[in-house]
Amino acid sequence: MVSTFVGLDSDGCVVDTMAAKQHGFLQPLMVEALGLEPLREVYCACADFVNLYSETRGITRFRAIYLNLQLFNRHPTRVAAGFPEVPLADLQAFVESGLPLSGETLERWITAHPSPILEKILAWSRRVNEAILTSGVEFPAYAGAREALKRMAGRSETGIVSQSPEQVLRQDWGAQGLLEFVGHVAGQEVGDKVAQLTALTDGRFPRERVLMIGDALGDLKAARAFGCRFYPIVPGAEETSWEAFNREVYDAFLAGDYTAEAEAARVRDFAAAMPALPPWEQA
User: Fold this and answer.
1) pLDDT at residue 203, as a whole number
2) Crossing angle for the helix pair 27-34 and 116-135, nearest 10 degrees?
3) CA atoms lying within 13 Å on the CB side of residue 40
């Protein structure tokens, strides 16, 4: 019987999907949904920063849209152009409701809180899911991640811990032949990542025998809130990060030697790669 559990984020961590999904699906469909075509480049720059290059990388879809649009509304190019702000009060109420931020939850929320902009965002989310699932695009897995999953087979219990819908996760991992290496799949339907880690481990593993692997500060925060160890996959240095995991960190974790001090050194480099402010707002 294995005595350790490893939870793995998906997008940008195991499967190289982050930029491709943003540029191929999420951003163009949002520009269309909200009529932002005149300032497409501005919106896409905001979305790139929030989702790929900042401390908010990897946050849930609807919270990300809220931050994208906040940044868009205050962008100096939008202000100078006199382009109308996107009204955000209804979206803010939803993302701050404390509810799981899934499409199903948003649909129920709209029933109780009718909102034209939330209707557009829900329709956008459904279109994104459908477009990804029917596109036929296969997102490659990082070679080091594939090696790590093979090494963990039979040595640790494993599970996907992600804010993507479960159906999308199964497609992305299945296309790369990776589903056979994980015992569990937890998508956004389960709740946030703390809820997912709780559901997947179910009190069967001491927290110090649980490891979360992720590529975003939200993954680190989830690990902290849950009380387990964290290993970062640094954006832009994914293969290097996986090589270090395979070479030394996984065996140290199994032996109980992946200490708080060892984790902290890796987290410092990880956090430094993701700033809080976009270039156009930095002093």
Assistant:
1) 85
2) 150
3) 10
Asked if 105 and 60 touch (Cβ cutoff 8 Å), the reply is no
Task: List all residues 6 or more positions away from 172 whose beta carbon is below 8 Å from its beta carbon.
Answer: 10, 11, 15, 17, 139, 164
Q: What is the pTM of this model?
A: 0.81
Judged on CB neighbours under 10 Å (0-12, 13-18, 19+), 262 is: middle
* Helices 40-52, 61-74: inter-axial angle, 10-degree rounding: 130
Crossing angle of the two packed helices 217-226 and 260-272, in degrees rounded to 10: 150
Residue the block writes with tokens 């005149």: 38
Is the Cα torsion angle 29, 30, 36, 38 positive or negative in sign? negative
Q: What is the DSSP letter of 140?
A: P
Q: Report d(CA 5, CA 279) in Å as an integer.
A: 39
Burial class of residue 241 (count of CB atoms within 10 Å of its CB; 0-12, 13-18, 19+)? buried
Residue 164 — very low, low, confident or very high, per pLDDT cuts 50/70/90? Answer: confident
Where is 230: in which H helix or E strand? Answer: strand 229-232
